[in-house]
Amino acid sequence: MKGKTLMKSLALGLLVLAFAVTAFAADTIKIPVASPFTGQLASFGEGVKNGAMLKAEEVNAAGGVNGKKVEIVLGDELCDPKEAANVATKFAADSDVSIVVGHLCSSATLAALPIYKDAKLPAISPASTNPTIGKSSPYYFRNVYMDDFQGSFLAKYVKSVKGWEKITIFYETNDYSIGLKDAFIAEAKNQGLKILGTEAYTNETTDFTPQLTKFRAMKPDALFIPGYAPQGTLIVAQAAKLGMKVGFFGADGIDDAMMLENPDAEGLFVTTPFLADNPNASDVTKAFVKGYKAKFGVEPNWFAANTYDAVGMAVEAIKNVGADREKIRGYLAGIDSPGKAYVGVTGPTYFDANGDVIKGAFVKEIKGGKWISSQKQL
Amino acid sequence: MHQNLLDSVSLLGQQLVNGITLGSVYALIAVGYTMVYGVIQLINFAHGEVYMMGAMLAFTMVTSFKISFWISFPVAIVMCSILGILLDVVAYRPLRRAPRLAALITAIGMSLFLQNFALLIWGSQIKAFPRQTLPAVFFKPAVSLGDIVVTWLQVFILTVAVGMMIGLHAVIHHTKVGTAMRAIAQDKVTASLMGINVNRVISFTFAIGSAMGAVAGVLVGIYYNAIWPTMGYIAGIKAFAAAVLGGIGSVPGAMLGGGVLGMAEVMGAGYISSAYRDGIAYAVMILVIIFKPSGLLGKSTVAKV
């Protein structure tokens, strides 16, 4: 008898709780964050997720936006253009969604772009660097530099700091990698670098030895890998097995902790939009790094920092103009000069006419199995 | 001029070494497909997943349980043999008398099941055998001829592959169970009337094929420094193509097919276009099949009525 009453009140309690949760859920502001959270690039997505969650938590602790709590909705698209289109369609159809933060891979962003454009849904990518994105849609903004900048930055760095002359390039067949390679080659000509050869690979490859063997015969000073870390680490290891003694460098796609487990990657350097150990960082940045470390136990990578700011800008927009897609687009497009810049952990952020940002790049390298900022920056 | 010639010779030499290594691996996997097909005319699509499990199990033993590589390797092989037998008992044996398509569908089902099972346990990220867990000798050059480097690992891969192939040939042609396998391949019903325990011999076939797959999985995991739950899919498709290329059902054909496919891939990537390497490899396969539909060493079978 007694047991039954207990069960009854428990069930009733659960019912009330369920109602409370539903009522609560309707009172939140949904901000979808789209990125690979599983699959090969899951570790990039980890930074995106942590950055978004940290920002939302801080906003909610400070009372939320216009009296409502921010709720981060994760959309996992595995860095796959097909999945990205599915996720984008879902967000575009959801009337509670007024802005999206994402996607990570350029190929995924380019697949989602027309869907957001048709739905007049503004989006901020924290990480897609392909140059064509901003020009293709007035609804797409981004909080990261572009590959034409990054590629030419790398060419200048290689020439002036490293003094290398003969370069080979091993790129992946995706929008990010091809854009970066083209930008690098364009500036390399100006710098007088010799590009001895370029070879391609697909992301399903694990055997890179035929192409590396070809590179080895060209006797380059360095191998440029404008791809992602899962393949980057294999390329470096297999090159070492073939006895290639060259310098290795990549861009922000190689910036991942998985490279540190590879003893052959010692000395490899990359460009990155954010340095956690930058001594010249602002107080906002230092506070972010400290808070992030305390919560997640690791230093924030650039995905975390850029996403943290992207979510911050989304919140700021909703706070100022409400949850209206068209008005939010207008608000973001209005942040167009240094004076109106959003002050984030990645520095003051404002958009040009295409919705792209102008930000500097940093260089870091692997030394003693750790990422450290390079002595010489440009 | 002289230097150029020397360079291109050593380039070709190294590409040959790369091609032979990749080809040996494809051959090891292809044998698993071809043996099962030869005996029960089933394309065991879960074979690629057995290959993946081999790598994963060895990886777990070496990293989580700190067991020496020389013990983990054979243990992983034995575990995969058992997995192969389980596959047969659970998924294929109940359908022995069903239409062939039904068993094919369960094979695909088992493939998906094992893939997702591995995802659940090991996660989706690419893993690598930490170097200190592997015998140091693997990474030392065995042959170093000018620019051509052959590491002991490559020698090991080739030796194991060739050794297992010879062993397999001996088993099929010079043992009782091999004779029984060939008998079942010819006619299952008559074989059972002759007193052959058909199910037991089929299980044995699965065990051997899976063992070869596990060997390939571990070797690939070490050689390319990468193992992940869906690695069996692409490798399985390639090895299946190799088996068809060599003539499905024929064990020497699978070895030859693996070698040809591996070489076509490496030479295609090295000399034609690296972006289309898989395309080139499959184009070679399609060409062979067009001109010799039964594969390189396959016998053109007369339909049995």
Structure, described:
The complex is a heterodimer of chains A (378) and B (305). With 378 residues, chain A is α/β, with parallel strands linked by helices. Chain A has 12 helices and 14 strands. In chain A, helix 7 (175-191) links the parallel strand 6 and strand 7 (194-201). By secondary structure, chain B is mainly α. Chain B has a single domain, classed as ABC transporter involved in vitamin B12 uptake, BtuC. Chain B is built from 11 helices and 2 strands, in the order H-H-H-H-E-E-H-H-H-H-H-H-H. Chain B has a two-stranded antiparallel ribbon with strand order 1-2. The chains are: A alpha/beta (378), B mainly alpha (305). Chains A and B meet through strand 7, helix 8 and helix 9 of A and helix 1 and helix 10 of B.
Helices and strands, with pairings:
The complex is a heterodimer of chains A (378) and B (305).
Chain A: H1 2-26, E1 28-35, H2 42-61, E2 69-76, H3 81-93, E3 100-101, H4 106-118, E4 123-125, H5 132-136, E5 140-142, H6 147-162, E6 166-172, H7 175-191, E7 194-201, H8 209-218, E8 222-225, H9 229-241, E9 247-250, E10 269-272, H10 283-296, H11 302-321, H12 325-334, E11 342-344, E12 347-349, E13 362-367, E14 370-373
Parallel strand pairs in A: 1-2, 3-4, 4-5, 6-7, 6-8, 8-9, 9-10
Antiparallel strand pairs in A: 10-13, 11-12, 13-14
Chain B: H1 2-40, H2 47-63, H3 69-92, H4 100-122, E1 141-145, E2 148-151, H5 152-174, H6 176-186, H7 188-193, H8 198-224, H9 231-246, H10 251-272, H11 277-291
Antiparallel strand pairs in B: 1-2
Helix pairs in contact in B: 1-5, 1-8, 1-9, 1-10, 2-3, 2-4, 2-8, 2-9, 3-8, 5-6, 5-8, 6-8, 9-10, 9-11, 10-11
Give a quick summary of the entry:
The complex is a heterodimer of chains A (378) and B (305). By secondary structure, chain A is α/β, with parallel strands linked by helices. In chain A, 47% of the residues lie in helices and 18% in strands.
